Recover the amino acids of this structure.
């Protein structure tokens, strides 16, 4: 054990004396700071958009209330029901941000974060909604957030500081001296790995976390999310250190090791995910939005034709007739929605099948598994966005049921109270276990990559060729 | 002498198993990506034809209906996909493939392939363009980083120079030898692309586009080759040469094209969706100058119409005033949308301009714009489609409004056969940018690529003079 500590102490001293270390650390810190700031800026803009939606909605309801109040003043004795008020205003459910949103912009620009609809005219539920007006060129380039730093750049800096962990000793000629010491090669090799790897990894992980927490301020994320983030970074970093170790076991020159590390980095972070994404496109192409839009129009025509053949009974001033007319309208909307449902369900099923396939493929590369974890922790993942759409859809249905069953008439004096009692959408976060399971599955994938590399390293260290020395 | 050097270098490159297999793998992967891109382009094109047919059929099926109701029912314009998009899909995944056209509203394009994605969507997809832009430079670096530095370390360079070879001739010879390899790879793409264009009866301009596109890639990869040879000539061993070249690749090919759009979006921010919607609504309600409310404009229209027809009451107008109001309102909302979308797209262009200003730091920035521009997968091509679609939307909505104007005043509007009314309006064809329009937008990127090539070649030739010191 003493020997191990000696090796670790020696390596730490060398790391701190290396002139490249502070330069790389400073560069990485600057990149992390910019990425965290950029992510926070995006989150602030999204929060501002959510506030704007809330303000607009309140203003529109206040206008509606004022109009009804004026009408009631001109028509003494006029009454209103909770149902007629709830069915007469616009709704705009929104997907709130999670505290870790600045970590990964993820899929936030690919899914709408609000749904706007009117209970008796829910056509807008089918209209595509833009999540942002971001320049498509910026979307194509990808976001520069901490997730990008963790997935792409953390490995680069880790590899830059560890790629010649053993090949450097070989080239300097010190490997021969080290192997001549009364320490097993295994202890020597892993001692160096622990010293360099743990120090560098913990340092870089801290550089990622500090700006994230700094920008979050008092609204910071909870302990479990931070712990999951920390564990993910450490596991992913450990994977890359294991890559450097593996390369150092098999490659004999520093240039070759740098080349091999670079090639593996390129393969894992860029080539493999790119090929996986292309495989998803090829094997599970996205369902045609154009065909979907046209099918919805066909149904709209069919419904129009059906309505032409059975024109609705016009409501009269009579209270009972008004309630009956509202019930009839809501029933008609339900029929419309039932007609649209199979087409919508079929489209969404195909989208979901594609997503499921892509989700399964993420385990093929540590980079995609980590990206998935980061998006889930940030709340910018596909699963949460789809859950929001489903909840908004169910809310629209529940609203119609509520409107159709809250028809007790009340005097105009109660208008403000009636408006205040309009149902409010509240997003229910998917069960914590769903996120935990996905994060744990990704961590298990990382761990299995790590174990696989560990066994390759252990086998490599047993090879007689590892102990051979080429000399300086 | 030059021929001998070229032959010798080519032999060496071919003997390098590492480079040979990587090159074969890259070319095969890129060609597979090209084929997969072609399959996707064909699938989209077929879907588009079917979607256009279904849209036209739905429009006709309406039969005899209220003209303004039909304007709200609307139509859809579907974006054409160029054949060259199979080589470089550019922004296609992030711009919509169709636009819903309806009364009173100018919609943004929807149906983006990147919508409804997963964590995989955060990664750049593998396409022929990404293979050539991202991975091919690594191959060039691998093939060239040890050309001089490795020889210097092995003491071979000293022998070559002692044999009386001019260092500059040595540099040019090796540049030409590896350049032949690059040209051969691009030639393969040119041949494959050319055959694809020929089989699909593509217009002659597409062949020119393909040729220009490949010239851009040649300039880009030769730039990397010259830089690689130059750095190799500066370093005493292969290790620092490789490290510095990979660091440059990382910064110029991966980091800057990612951080650049982020910086330009901060310098020229765009509004959020609700803010943009509010701005448009305000312009429609309060007038473009903010001091001309909708009801005042309607009063003016009423007075103008009565004066034009010489009557004193709206009821006496020989035309349907609600039709006139719809026509006038459509013109006003269209103008409001046009102004706000123009402002938004101008911001996009400013962002692109800033990105272009960063081109001296990365040859990939001008190449990205050049490649997507020529493949008609950039925002300029998309905007041409949007403009075309908007022109059609305005024309068909106003044609329907004219039917309302002509309907008997003071009576319920009689339904009309809308398909007959809009038959005379030209159907949106999805206009492509002409080659000359593309050239006007892209020549500056072409010049930037050329400057990169000339400067890097100058650098390589300059370092050739230091080869004596290296040996």
């Amino acid at each position: 054990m003493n020997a191990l500590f000696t090796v670790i102490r020696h390596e730490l001293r060398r790391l701190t004396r290396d002139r490249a270390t502070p330069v790389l650390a400073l560069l990485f810190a600057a990149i992390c700071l910019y990425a965290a700031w950029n992510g926070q800026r995006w989150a602030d803009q999204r929060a501002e958009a959510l506030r704007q939606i809330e303000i607009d909605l309140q203003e529109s309801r206040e206008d509606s209330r004022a109009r009804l109040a004026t009408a009631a003043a001109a028509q003494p004795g006029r009454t209103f029901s909770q149902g007629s008020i709830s069915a007469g205003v616009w709704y705009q459910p929104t997907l709130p941000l999670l505290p870790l949103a600045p970590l990964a912009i993820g899929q936030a620009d690919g899914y709408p974060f609000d749904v706007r609809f009117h209970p008796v005219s829910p056509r807008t539920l089918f209209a595509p909604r833009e999540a942002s007006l971001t320049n498509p060129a910026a979307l194509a380039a990808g976001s520069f957030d901490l997730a990008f730093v963790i997935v792409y750049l953390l490995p680069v800096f880790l590899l830059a500081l560890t790629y010649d962990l053993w090949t450097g000793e070989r080239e300097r000629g010190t490997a021969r001296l080290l192997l001549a010491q009364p320490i097993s090669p295994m202890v020597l090799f892993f001692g160096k790995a622990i010293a360099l790897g743990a120090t560098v990894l913990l340092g870089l992980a801290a550089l990622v976390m500090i700006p994230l927490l700094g920008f979050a301020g008092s609204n910071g994320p909870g302990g479990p999310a931070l712990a999951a983030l920390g564990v993910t970074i450490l596991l992913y970093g450990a994977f890359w250190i294991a890559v450097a170790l593996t390369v150092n076991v098999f490659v004999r020159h520093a240039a070759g090791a740098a080349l091999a590390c670079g090639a593996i980095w390129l393969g894992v972070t860029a080539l493999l995910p790119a090929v996986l994404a292309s495989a998803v496109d090829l094997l599970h192409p996205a369902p045609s939005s154009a065909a979907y839009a046209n099918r919805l129009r066909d149904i709209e025509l069919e419904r129009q034709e059906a309505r032409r053949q059975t024109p609705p009974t016009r409501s009269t001033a009579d209270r009972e007739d008004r309630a009956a007319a509202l019930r009839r309208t809501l029933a008609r909307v339900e029929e419309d929605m039932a007609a649209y449902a199979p087409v919508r369900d079929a489209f969404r099923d195909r989208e979901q099948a594609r997503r499921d396939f892509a989700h399964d493929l993420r385990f093929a590369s540590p980079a995609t598994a980590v990206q998935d974890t980061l998006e889930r922790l940030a709340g910018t993942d596909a699963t949460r966005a789809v859950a929001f759409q489903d909840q908004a859809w169910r809310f629209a249905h529940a609203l119609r049921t509520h409107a159709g069953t809250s028809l007790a008439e009340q005097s105009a004096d109660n208008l403000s109270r009636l408006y205040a009692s309009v149902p409010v959408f509240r997003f229910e976060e998917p069960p914590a276990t769903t996120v935990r399971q996905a994060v744990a599955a990704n961590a298990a994938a990382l761990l299995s990559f790590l174990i696989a590399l560990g066994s390759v390293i252990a086998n490599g260290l047993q090879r007689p060729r590892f102990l051979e020395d080429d000399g300086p | 002498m030059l021929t001998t050097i070229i032959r010798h270098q080519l032999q060496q490159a071919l003997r390098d198993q590492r480079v040979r297999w990587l090159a074969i793998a890259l070319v095969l992967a890129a060609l597979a990506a090209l084929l997969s891109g072609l399959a996707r382009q064909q699938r989209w094109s077929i879907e588009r034809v079917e979607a256009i047919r279904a849209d036209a059929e739905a429009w006709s099926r309406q039969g005899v209906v209220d003209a303004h109701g039909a304007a709200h029912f609307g139509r859809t314009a579907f974006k054409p996909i160029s054949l060259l998009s199979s080589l470089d899909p550019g922004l296609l995944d992030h711009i919509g493939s169709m636009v819903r056209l309806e009364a009173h509203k100018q919609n943004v394009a929807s149906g983006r392939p990147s919508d409804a994605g997963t964590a995989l969507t955060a990664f750049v997809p593998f396409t022929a363009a990404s293979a050539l832009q991202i991975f091919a430079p690594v191959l060039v670096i691998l093939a060239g980083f040890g050309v001089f530095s490795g020889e210097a370390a092995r003491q071979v360079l000293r022998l070559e120079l002692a044999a009386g070879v001019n260092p500059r001739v040595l540099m040019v010879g090796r540049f030409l030898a590896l350049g032949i390899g690059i040209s051969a790879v691009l030639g393969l793409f040119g041949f494959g692309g050319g055959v694809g264009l020929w089989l699909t009866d593509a217009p002659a301009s597409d062949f020119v586009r393909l040729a220009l596109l490949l010239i851009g890639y040649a300039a880009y990869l030769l730039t990397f080759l010259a830089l690689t040879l130059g750095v190799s000539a500066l370093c005493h061993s292969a290790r620092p040469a490789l490290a510095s070249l990979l660091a440059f690749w990382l910064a110029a090919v991966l980091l800057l094209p990612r951080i650049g759009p982020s910086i330009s979006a901060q310098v020229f921010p765009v509004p959020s969706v609700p803010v943009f919607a509010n701005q448009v609504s305000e312009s429609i309600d309060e007038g473009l100058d903010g001091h001309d409310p909708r009801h005042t404009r309607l009063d003016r229209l009423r007075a103008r119409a009565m004066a034009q027809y010489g009557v004193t009451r709206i009821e006496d107008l020989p035309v349907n005033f609600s039709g006139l109001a719809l026509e006038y309102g459509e013109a006003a909302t269209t103008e409001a949308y046009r102004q706000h979308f123009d402002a938004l797209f101008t911001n996009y262009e400013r962002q692109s301009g800033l990105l272009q200003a960063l081109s001296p730091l990365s040859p990939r920035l001008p190449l990205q714009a050049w490649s997507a521009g020529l493949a008609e997968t950039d925002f300029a091509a998309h905007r041409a489609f949007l403009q075309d679609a908007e022109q059609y939307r305005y024309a068909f909505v106003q044609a329907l409004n004219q039917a309302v104007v002509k309907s008997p005043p003071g009576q319920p509007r009689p339904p009309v056969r809308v398909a007959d009314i809009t038959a005379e309006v030209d159907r949106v064809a999805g206009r492509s940018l002409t080659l000359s329009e593309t050239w006007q937008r892209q020549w500056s990127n072409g010049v930037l690529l050329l400057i990169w090539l000339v400067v890097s070649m100058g650098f390589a030739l300059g370092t050739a003079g230091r080869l004596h010191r290296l040996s």
Notes: The mean pLDDT of chain B is 88. The beta strands of chain B are 64-65, 75-78, 98-102, 105-106, 416-417.
